[in-house]
Amino acid sequence: MSELQQEPTAVQGEGRWLLGDPIADDRAPDSPVGDRWSDRKFSARLVNPANRRKMTAIIVGTGLAGGAAAATLGEAGYHVKSFCFQDSPRRAHSIAAQGGINAAKNYRNDGDSVHRLFYDTVKGGDFRSRESNVHRLAEVSLNIIDQCVAQGVPFAREYSGLLDTRSFGGTQVSRTFYARGQTGQQLLIGAYSALERQIAAGTVEMHPRTEMLDLIVADGRARGIVTRSILTGKIETHLADVVVLCTGGYGNVYYLSTNAKGSNVTAAWRAHKRGALFANPCYTQIHPTCIPVSGEYQSKLTLMSESLRNDGRVWVPKERGDNRPPNQIPEEERDYYLERQYPSFGNLVPRDIASRAAKNMCDAEQGVGPGGLGVYLDFKDAIGRLGRHAVEAKYGNLFEMYQRITGDDPYEVPMRIYPAIHYTMGGLWVDYDLRSTIPGLFVGGEANFSDHGANRLGASALMQGLADGYFVLPTTVPNYLADGPFDPIDESHPAVVEAVESTKGRIDKLLSANGNRTVDSFHRELGQLIWDQCGMARSKEGLEKALDRLPSLREEFWRDVKIVGTGDGFNQSLEKAGRVADFLELGELMCTDALHREESCGGHFRVEHQTEDGEAQRDDENFSYVAAWEYGGDQSGAKPILHKEDLEFSYVHPSQRSYK
Amino acid sequence: MRITLRVWRQKNADAKGKMEKYKLDDVDEDMSFLEMLDVLNEKLILQGEDPVSFDHDCREGICGSCAMVINGTPHGPQKNTTTCQLHMRHFKDGDTIDVEPWRARAFPVIKDLVTDRSAFDQIIQAGGYVSVNTGSAPEAHATPVDKVSADDAFDAATCIGCGACVAACPNGSSMLFTAAKVTHLGLLPQGQPERQTRAISMLAKQDELDFGGCTNVGACAEVCPKGIPLASISRLNHDVLGATLAGARAD
Ligand SMILES: Cc1cc2nc3c(=O)[nH]c(=O)nc-3n(C[C@H](O)[C@H](O)[C@H](O)COP(=O)(O)OP(=O)(O)OC[C@H]3O[C@@H](n4cnc5c(N)ncnc54)[C@H](O)[C@@H]3O)c2cc1C
Ligand code: SF4
Ligand code: FES
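A: This is the predicted complex of the input protein with flavin-adenine dinucleotide.
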């Protein structure tokens, strides 16, 4: 990618962005798609075991991707420094994943195969992902399950003692491995225990409660990070031969999301501002079945498993503004709109379609509950048909969770649900080796853009995180390190000094504003704006409106934010402020990306681009590419620069999705 | 509803702390306990006062970050519920609620309600794993695991590492936490080769740290938000006894 390090040559285009040179992945071998990963592994260079401990790898993030990568590189003998902002690596956001993890084991002999998982994932991504990467993901899925079982991950089993699987949306086979409703927790505990084992062995140095605030790029290579200790406020630098970011997704730009409260974009955004391209920021996933907002104080949204739609029926009152209790609304006055609009898939249409339909009903003032932002998910028929006992056996824990949060008993009254932001497909651009456009900077897990195109299938994020962490990065990072040893670097290097100074400057600036609004109040306003204009449905007009508002909101933030306390010591408002400052900038890039993509695909729905019956209308002719954005610079009015990576489909041929 | 809070305020690890009183007039019964504290903090910030620090992340009862002693009970009055999943409808208008950090020698206070629980990671480092390097795993179906053991192992593995068990224990013992891990791995065939050394190494580590000994009080299991049963402690003791008889040593 060396040409990207230069100024883009052909800067043209108009409006809110500039057009730069195209880019391409030059790392996937030219062989048939099924041979590429083994060919790449064979061609990857190795590092002599004796030299490994002299090489330092920084890995930021201890979720599935980062935890697995740190443990595995530690096992291989590298000197690893691992970072997370929580008090323990075991608390990374991956812990919250519920449903399961996909793998093409075909234990059920139901026609599954690596090729089918590859096919489903490319199609599920609405033909906006890279075939090479997706195929590798499907191949590696087999090894992931083996690895996790060997670590003692207690997956669900059948009476035979063999592993159980279940079905998930968007597929016709049963390939989802699970550990009750806590698959993420169990997988993460597996990776965490492998990590702790390496910490005990002395190969991994763990830095919890430490937040990366900048990337150090010296002489064209990523050579370290600037961190702030959450405990003491101390700004420090960590230097290394390679830096790997596994820092998760950016769903919290919307303020309300299903992500953990601390999830943020700072590490990725800082890397972007240091030269890494950011790909497809507008591809975000909205999950249709979350517990709706109950009041202004709402701090996050809770996901209810998608499996509920197997037996629950979704409806709203036919009459606008009908606020009778649900059980008093007679059958003929209910609109089971999914069953009406999608007779063949009914309540089981994919996530994006179910979400949009709920939004349309609420926009038409047929929504229920506070603010009219909810629809019913009703189990009355299922209870009648199967009996309460059977429903309890299937969904008991979910019903309990719902009742704990809302105080309503879903056996008696229908659940209220509403869509919420859940996952971000966009992220830092990487090639097949998971290298960003900055040499020496690798990106894994949800933080990169690589495998899910415009829409992620259920149970595929855990698979990708562990594929990157256990198998891909441990092959491709050493290949890069084999170029070393790199020039020695110390704290006096101008790039290090500059990064430290600018980090301190930002913190001082945040603390000195001493304005009138809290960080959360800005975050809520930003979230509402992005949700309204760059959420489930996007329009040119709305996006332009957001793009006009965002610079002034950012300016207000820096002028009027109020943070109590100082920078040296535990200060949670200061931590949040730094993250919100970056979300404010990211929001603008998301809207620009959404505005430029004049088509609808996956999670990106442009109201101008829909079929006659309201479905997403892709434009393969003009938009079959990855939009990789280069940072335009700090000066006001600077425009981001678009680099296009053309997507080729040699194995899976793009088709229109239909669920009617 | 109106709520009076008495919250433990402590500037840093070395400072002396004290209970501070705050009044909230507009608490909604659908708020979670942490959302109620968010409301307090927004108020404090606008008044120029230091907001109350507390650990939290997932707010779904799974990450184990949140940790508060509410009216004397770790995680508060509702059984099997973490602080973040406790809702204000379990309190009454006019209630006074005491909010304190975990109190245990092994978990020193960092600030306000935030404590240092890194000792738990050290217990895991002592043996809470199966020693299998990436890439060396056999095919997953090579070893079937009977469903009952798999389910029981899962139940033990749901421990979220919150530390409520330690906070509730008059001795500040980490026995339930350690036992949950020993049970999880000890029930699975994959955990067998290291079963004995694991038990004694983890136990030796917790003794070396600032945790107290277990005298079978049972307060730990009462407050555990994940319902880890007291019986897991007998399992740990059984493994330790077996290991001692077999002459295994901590490693
Ligand atoms: C409620 C919920 C349920 C889900 N269920 C499923 C499911 O059933 N199946 C599925 O496949 N996927 C699911 N997902 C998606 C999946 O959980 C995530 O995409 C995945 O776990 C992300 O893993 P990760 O390793 O990339 O990042 P994360 O687990 O988010 O970890 C990020 C890490 O980076 C660290 N970090 C971030 N920024 C910094 C910084 N600046 N400095 C230092 N450290 C930093 C954090 O401390 C953390 O350790 C679910 C998601 C949610 C929200
Ligand atoms: S055993 Fe229970 S109380 Fe103790 S750390 Fe685990 S989940 Fe928390
Ligand atoms: S915040 Fe995660 S368990 Fe309470």
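Chain B has two domains: 3-111, 117-246. The domain at 117-246 of chain B is CATH 1.10.1060.10 (Fumarate Reductase Iron-sulfur Protein; Chain B, domain 2).
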